[in-house]
Amino acid sequence: MISEKMKGLVAGNSVIRAMFEEGKKMAKEFGRENVYDFSLGNPSVRPPKEVREAMVKILETEDENYVHGYMSNGGYEEVREKIAASLNKRFGTHLAGKNILMTVGAAGGLNVILKTLLNPGDEVLTFTPFFVEYRNYVNNFDGVLVQLPVNFAGGFRPDPEALAAAITPKTKALIVNTPNNPTGVVYSAEDITKIADVLRAKQEEYGTEIYLIADEPYRELAYDGVEVPYLTNFYDNTIVGYSYSKSLSLPGERIGYLVIPDEVTDADTVIAGATVANRILGFVNAPSLIQLTVAECLDSEVDVAAYDRNRKLLYESLIGMGYHCIKPEGAFYLFVETPVDDKAFSEKAKEEHLLVVPGSSFGCANYVRIAYCVDYDMIERSLPAFRRVAEYYGLA
Amino acid sequence: MISEKMKGLVAGNSVIRAMFEEGKKMAKEFGRENVYDFSLGNPSVRPPKEVREAMVKILETEDENYVHGYMSNGGYEEVREKIAASLNKRFGTHLAGKNILMTVGAAGGLNVILKTLLNPGDEVLTFTPFFVEYRNYVNNFDGVLVQLPVNFAGGFRPDPEALAAAITPKTKALIVNTPNNPTGVVYSAEDITKIADVLRAKQEEYGTEIYLIADEPYRELAYDGVEVPYLTNFYDNTIVGYSYSKSLSLPGERIGYLVIPDEVTDADTVIAGATVANRILGFVNAPSLIQLTVAECLDSEVDVAAYDRNRKLLYESLIGMGYHCIKPEGAFYLFVETPVDDKAFSEKAKEEHLLVVPGSSFGCANYVRIAYCVDYDMIERSLPAFRRVAEYYGLA
């Protein structure tokens, strides 16, 4: 009796979420220490201590009806202004509070901006592999997600020629995700300049607006000193979706924001539309206490070095066992080639109590995603299992 | 450059939200104490002290990655089980944790269940006057909101004959809201029995499923000992959307739940669908800390007596001035007849710094909604302004 659309979605429910549920079951059956769950991007590193300190202080000193009450649908004005000022300082932008819209995480923000922009049939492009939920978010508003081909030769970097070839008069947006889930690639200034050049040329060619939507939950997770350029500085029609889920280890709290700069065409209308969308999609506003909390923690971040230690241990160990993968520069995923079909590989891995996500969930078969936002000692304990799988497939 | 749908929505933006913004501006211009903002249902009564106590205790004693981390999309299992047990105790239901889906407020819950159920063109009925956002929520999924006629003669009670006349083979759901926004009417067991009888007969006549969706943010706000019956006890295909926004004065925190009882046809599929909808609409899960917090406050509620004092003062004062309205039994609104067009009346009221919402926003012209979830002394200070408006229209 559920809708036709939903029937299909229930049948093909998220592989990642299904693994998360399976991991919990296996932990009960075999003991938590004997299951190596690399399936979900659920941060293992603790939130910085400033989060709890700020939260308790707000609860103890601020008026409760302010802390827990309604505010404007776009968020507390003072929170939006603080975030704008912080971004301006870090990235040389020229944002005001009105350019920031507080959202229920980046997932909420992406839905809000797609609801705001998409007419039925509009095309939204994304480079493959891509975060599986983009397809659902675009489908929510009857748009069409167009996967750009995988750039194997270029190490999963964005391919501007493939982008140019895919843009049509129906193209409304390109979603990019850097640092990238699932590959760990960080787009360089050169990558972004090339993307921006293509988008500008195509806007002119077709007389359309093409929005660059930057999904940035992993912005603060970059290693080896690699720079993560701020995309609004490269292309006017850029909208950023940010989340504190990873930078402050708060994924359950559902807090993030959209940046809609004045350089976006008809920015005030887009901002007004996004504010209405935030309300009518049922978010109403981003949760209130956590809005006030993150505004007090704008200079804090989780212990990124802990993820870096995980990255090095897992990457070097797997390479040493004969696995193939590019070295990730950001986020907390390894995207590893599989010697057989990715689903068969992940089933074999599960026999060894290793939970990894088939790459076909990201539009890229014959790879698996391994989320290393886990305890260091779980990685250590899991290595014999990875080795047994490698030996089974004769990788070494 | 925003979507066609959104253009219309931005143009006709929420009158209530526009007033909330206007009230903030007027407070700056004339001084907060000289503006009488009765526009928004933003609770004035403080959350019960147990909320802050529970929150601080959770922050101080529980593992942070548990408190702020991802959990199943339906919410923490232990929270869902506690809520089910509490409902079973209060209302004699037979719910388990799996029948409870934690949501981003009732607004989030309604969007989730409508996304789950509606095919394009499906009809959703509601009694008029109705909460204005229902139309947007139904439109989000290409459903058609059908307003049932206003039952003026019956004091805004639900009219089962009008309901029966409006149901077609395309009818997928009836949304009811008791205690009611904007009228304050509480549906009696007799009212609900009649509604259930009609729905059952029509399900049989058409061989369809018709869901009764109970939107219950005001459940705990009832006065004079009036009973608020639990709707799942009257009709199998009932789904409840609850919110803690008013019962615990936490509207900004966005926390509520859906109840999908086993008595619903194909309940497991509906639950699975709603869980997926919660994820892909971008809610992902209800905010985490506040989930854990409300589970510790299931026997707490705000000081309902404070709203009752407001109700009596405002109702009796306005009646004494010559205004006409039914005495509300629940929620925190008066729905007052206007001697002229409701928009003209509310403009006149604004000249006296009184902000009230035209009834046409609820599908019922020639009335205004006055939200009395405000400070008692603001009501006292506002009375001369209401009197001047009454005198202007010669009501007394």
Structure description:
The structure is a homodimer of 396-residue chains. Chain A has helices at residues 4-11, 15-30, 49-61, 64-67, 77-91, 105-117, 133-140, 160-166, 189-206, 267-280, 288-295, 304-321, 342-351, 376-392; strands at 36-37, 100-103, 123-127, 144-148, 171-176, 211-216, 238-243, 256-259, 333-337, 354-355, 357-358, 367-371. With 396 residues, the first copy, chain A, is of the alpha/beta class. The first copy, chain A, has two domains: 4-47 and 303-392, Aspartate Aminotransferase, domain 1, CATH 3.90.1150; 49-295, Aspartate Aminotransferase, domain 2 (3-Layer(aba) Sandwich). Chain A has a seven-stranded mixed beta sheet, sandwiched between helices. In chain A, helix 7 links the parallel strand 3 and strand 4. Chain A is globular, with a radius of gyration of 21 Å. Chain A starts with a helix and ends with a helix. The mean pLDDT of chain A is 96. The interface between A and B is large, with 80 and 80 residues.
What secondary-structure arrangement, pairings included, does this model have?
Two copies of one chain form a homodimer.
Chain A: H1 4-11, H2 15-30, E1 36-37, H3 49-61, H4 64-67, H5 77-91, E2 100-103, H6 105-117, E3 123-127, H7 133-140, E4 144-148, H8 160-166, E5 171-176, H9 189-206, E6 211-216, E7 238-243, E8 256-259, H10 267-280, H11 288-295, H12 304-321, E9 333-337, H13 342-351, E10 354-355, E11 357-358, E12 367-371, H14 376-392
Parallel strand pairs in A: 1-10, 3-4, 3-5, 5-6, 6-7
Antiparallel strand pairs in A: 2-8, 7-8, 9-12, 11-12
Helix pairs in contact in A: 3-11, 5-11, 6-10, 8-9, 12-14
